[in-house]
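Morning!

This is the sequence you dropped in the shared folder:
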Amino acid sequence: MTQPSDELIRLARVSTEARQAALGSPYTEETWEAWRTATETFMAAVTAEATGQNRYELEMAAKKAAQQLGAPPAEES
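The structure's back. Tokens below.
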């Protein structure tokens, strides 16, 4: 299985948070530009790190790891 670096996971998380901020507020060029910039940075890092690996698998592994880091703790019953 493809294992993304901690930095790639962090960039995926930043991109996801920027997307949520853009979608969760009224449209402004600044919020959408932040999302575009964060996503461009993440994608460039995926390409740079994917040497000898499947780029798509690396991207998906980073996004999955970023989601797991951001998951809220389970509530106790």
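Headline: Residues 29-49 form the longest helix (21 residues).

More detail when I'm at my desk.
O.
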